[in-house]
Each structure stands twice: as C-alpha cells, then as structure tokens.
Design goal:
The chain contains 19 helices and 12 strands. The protein has an 8-stranded parallel sheet. It has a domain at 232-361. It has helices at 27-38, 74-79, 85-89, 101-121, 125-137, 139-154, 165-168, 172-181, 183-209, 227-231, 269-274, 278-290, 325-336, 351-359, 401-410, 420-429, 437-447, 457-461, 490-502, and strands spanning 6-10, 43-45, 213-218, 246-250, 260-265, 293-296, 304-309, 319-322, 341-343, 364-367, 389-392, 452-456. It is α/β, with parallel strands linked by helices and 506 residues long.
Length: 506
C-alpha cells in the first residue's frame, strides 16, 4: 500500500533519556512524542519490542509476542501504587549515555518483584479486572510464554532444548503439573506482560491522538530458545530431540567468504501452509494492535531462505529453499485487508523477491549511505527513487552519518584528502562544504520523491561513531546508546519542521 508523503524519526525506546539506566515508557517517551509533533514529523519508528536474551538484541527475543519488561516505567508503577518513590530511589548510579543491561536487569527484577507482591495483596477491583481482561485476551500466547519463563527460571535459565526431555518435548501430564506447581511464577510473568502492554498501549494512544504513527518491526526469524519454538515445534524444521535440523544464514559473498550463520531455526512452511498460516496470522494480529505500520525485516526470506545444516559452524554449505511468501501475504490480505507493510529489501534482490514486493505494493527501502562511490545507476541515489519508497540516511545496523563520514576521512593516508566516496557525495550535493554533512544529507532525502523519509535520531543530533546502535557480527557495545536530556534543541526541532513544510512532508 502507498503511504502519504511524510517523515519520521528512528529511535528505539531503550535509547530515551531518564534516571533508571535504560529508556522506558514513562514521561520521557511522552516528551519525545511532543518533540516529534513540534518537528512536523508523522512517524516514530522503533525496533522490535520483545524480551531480549543473550547479546541484548531486540532481533533475538524469547518471544515474538511478549514485551520487554525492561521498558516498564518505574514512575508509572508508582502512579499505579505498585511500588513507592522510595523503591525507585534505591537504585544503582546508572550511566546517562549507555545502558548497562546486567545492572538494569538485576535492579528492575527486584522492582518488579515488589510490584507483584503489592499487586497480590491489592484489593483494587478495577486494576485486577483490567489484568484479568488482559490475560483472557492474550491467552493464546500468554499462558505458554509465562510457563516457559517460569520453567526457564527453575532450569537455571538454560535454553528449553537443554531441559529434561519431559519438559523439552512438552509431555502433557508434566506440563499440567508444572502449571499447578509454578502458578506463582506464572502469575508473575502474566503481571509483567500486563504492565508492559498497558504502558505501551497508553503511549501509542497518546502518539496516535497527536497524529504520530508508530512503525514497528517484525524480524522474519525467531530465536531457537524462544517460547514460540518450544510451543510450536511442528512449525519449525527441528530434529526429534528439539535441536534445529537447519538454521538460517546468508551465503558467502564479497564481504564474508564463509557467509553469515545466524542460527535461527527455519520454518516448516509445509506445515504452516496446511493450517492456513495460523501462527503468522496470530503474529500479525498481535502486531497490528501494537503498531500502525509493520516493517518486515529480511523481506527476501519470504521468497527463499538460505538453509544451513544445523551442525555446521559456517554458512558455506547451505542451499536456497523456496518459501511460499505469496501465499502467506495473500492469506494475510484476506484476513486483515490491506496490511500497512514496509519491506526491508536491502542487499542483493533477485527478480522473484522484487516481484513478491511489487505484487502486493509494499514500499521498499533505500539507504543514503550506500548511494555514493559508484555510478549514476546506483539504486540508493535519490534520483533513481520511485515514490513508493521509504528512504533512510542509515538504519540501526549502519554507522551514524557523521561516523560514516569521519571513518572515510580517517582511512585516507593523507588526512586532508577526501575519499572517492566523499568526493562523489559532495559533487552530488553540489557543494564543497563539508560542514553539517548530516543536515545536508537529511535535506537531500527530504527533497526526494520517496513517499516516506526516516532519519535516525543520531543523524539529527549530528553524533559520531560513539552513538552507533549496532555493528552486525560483533558483540560488546551494541544496543546500548541513549541520548541525554536536552540533546534535541529547539533549533534542531525547528530545522526538521522547516524541512517537512518546505518539501511537503507535513
């Protein structure tokens, strides 16, 4: 479907400022919505909202349905009388500009445990009734997810495929007994999910009332250690013991001679086709309650997936296996009507992937950082865009514009000399002035024919490599960046609004 000519900002809620070690859904999130309105924006794009595990990546979650409880606002818990201000005062001294996930997780776990204790003793009929309604509406995924997290806790947080066989393979009697014996732990998890989605939907309503639409993100694959795979083992290509028969990845290319081994289990598309793509329909139904527009990550995987044998250590010996993407999206269209989807079609796209995208009218993506250094036919150069496009200066996987630019300069043997990519960029811009390169490129995108332009907040702020969100295939400092209070100045906000009005994006 086509989107109105508009603009937005990419910022995951974890990157919001605040006093509690990680961005959350409290007052600063509402202030950010207000900033978007003042800046003439129409969209707030976020990353996946699921609970993160090892590596803290929002693209590797314990559930495709559950929410990340680290986003729960302590201030809102105080308002709901589930904790006190004194409880929030008893916290470590957190950094303002980076997230220490271990410290935040340990502190919030204690805080949430107190909220469960007070909820259990609470006599507020309205609050409990709201909780009961949530549990009933989310029963299709919530009960199994809560049990999965409860069992995980009793198994030293080991992945489900390492649990005793009776748990791993979901012996019916064993599971029934576990639900009874672990009822308190299960109720805890239910409450935490109620709280995160209650806070999120309140924030979304606030944004929508201000005419800001939320762009969410669906990763194509799910983690092997997730409630989804544990509960839906027949929907994935697994061995009888629960291990992955084949896993996802990318074949060898110019950038990696052994390819990329992601390790996610591959869907059993034959089984999914037989039940009318039940799991995918449930996933989209849930997602469309949480966001207004869905960005589908790794869109090419809905045409064919690179399947690597489960025991391999590299992605070299995989094979392309066709995926019934056309049937899936046709089924979603019959179920929901026109689904507001943006397709992440980055990388080498084959004609079958382009046909799938175009048959359903999904806009593809263009990344300005990929535009320069080649010839005039580069698909990421703005003069090659078609209107049904979502254009970015960069994504969460790219360096910031300033970091990208400075990185090219530092690579030159003579520091005063520009790289060919930089020379091409300035020539395209029609200037030899390198000052405020981030704003020059933002203006270039705003002036393009792309229906939607999304700018990472780091590029509005003009931040360097220190503010990069993620460097693929690395571990350490990913997903940790936060901006500080006062960083979005009135001048920056006015600049964005002026561009939005000048180029008809408001």
């Amino acid at each position: 479907m086509r989107f109105p000519r508009s603009a937005g900002i990419l910022l995951h809620p974890t990157s919001l400022p605040g006093d509690f070690g990680i961005g959350d859904l409290g007052p600063e999130a509402y202030k950010f919505v207000d900033t978007l309105v003042k800046a003439g924006q129409s969209h707030w794009q976020i990353l996946p909202l699921g609970p993160t595990g090892y590596g803290d990546s929002p693209y590797s979650s314990f559930s495709a349905f559950a929410g990340n409880t680290l986003l729960i606002s302590p201030e809102k818990l105080v308002t709901d009388e589930l904790i006190t201000t004194a409880d929030t005062d008893e916290r470590p001294k957190f950094q303002a500009e980076r997230i220490d996930y271990q410290a935040v997780s340990e502190w919030k776990a204690r805080l949430l445990a107190k909220s469960f204790e007070r909820f259990s003793a609470q006599r507020s009929t309205n609050f409990r009734s709201e909780f009961d309604r949530f549990c009933e509406s989310a029963r299709a995924w919530l009960d199994d997810y809560a049990l999965y997290r409860a069992l995980k806790r009793t198994q030293n947080n080991s992945p489900w495929y390492e649990w005793p066989e009776k748990f791993k393979l979901r012996d019916e009697r064993t599971i029934t007994i576990a639900r009874e014996q672990l009822s308190d732990l299960i109720d805890e998890q239910r409450l935490y999910q109620f709280l995160i989605f209650r806070q999120w939907l309140e924030l979304k309503r606030y944004a929508n009332d201000a005419e800001i639409k939320i762009i969410g993100d669906i990763p194509i694959f799910v983690a092997l250690d997730s409630a989804d795979v544990w509960c839906e083992q027949l929907q994935f290509k697994l061995n009888p013991d629960g291990s992955a028969r084949v896993v996802a990845g990318v074949p060898p290319d110019y950038f990696s001679k052994t390819g990329q081994l992601w390790g996610n289990p591959i869907y059993n598309w034959d089984a999914m086709r037989r039940d009318g793509f039940r799991w995918w329909k449930a996933r989209f139904r849930h997602m469309l309650k949480l966001v207004d527009v869905v960005r589908v990550d790794h869109f090419r995987g809905f045409s064919a997936a690179w399947e690597v044998p489960g025991g391999d250590e590299t992605a070299e010996h995989g094979e392309w296996v066709n995926v019934p993407g056309h049937e899936l999206f046709a089924g979603l269209k019959r179920e929901f009507g026109e689904v507001p989807i943006m397709a992440e079609d980055l990388g080498v796209m084959t004609p079958d992937v382009e046909d799938l995208r175009d048959d359903f009218g999904f806009p593809g993506m263009r990344i300005l950082q990929y535009a320069f250094g080649g010839d005039a036919k580069n698909r990421d150069l703005p003069h090659t865009y078609i209107p049904n496009t979502v254009a970015y200066t960069g994504t969460h996987d790219n360096d910031t514009i300033v970091g990208w630019w400075n990185g090219m300069t530092s690579d030159q043997k003579v520091s005063s000399r520009l790289s060919p990519t930089q020379e091409h960029c300035l020539n395209y811009l029609g200037t030899d002035d390198v000052a405020d390169i981030n704003w020059k490129l933002v203006r270039l995108l705003y002036s393009s024919v792309a229906d939607v332009v999304i700018i990472p907040l780091q590029d509005v702020l003009g931040l360097g490599n220190e503010a990069r969100m993620n460097t693929p295939a690395t571990t350490g400092r990913n997903w940790q960046w936060r901006f500080e209070r006062g960083a979005t100045t009135d001048h920056m906000v006015a600049q964005l609004k002026e561009l939005a009005e000048l180029y008809g994006r408001k």
